[in-house]
Amino acid sequence: MKIIVDADACPKNALQICMKLGKEYEVSVWTVASFNHNIVSDRHIVVGNAPQEADIKVINLSEAGDIVITQDWGLAAMVLGKPAYCLSPSGREFRAENI
Known about the structure:
Elements: E1 2-6, H1 12-24, E2 28-34, E3 44-47, H2 53-61, E4 67-69, H3 73-80, E5 85-87, E6 93-94
Parallel strand pairs: 1-2, 1-4, 2-3, 4-5
Antiparallel strand pairs: 5-6
């Protein structure tokens, strides 16, 4: 299990919570964002700024049982098909029945 954060639009406080919980529970936290963002993370992946580029990388990284943090409903729907868990930065759980 790993936590993958769609860091292009993730609020800093939500990202900090993910980092803290990852360290506390010994779960690796991966961040993905375009080169337009300055993200400090041990496991950060920089992508270009083409439309959906970060989303595609998040989908490719995610595996069954992972937790993905995103505000993007379309990305959430695809992640659920992995099957992985998906939460918004505010804590809303994305599920097939609420998308």
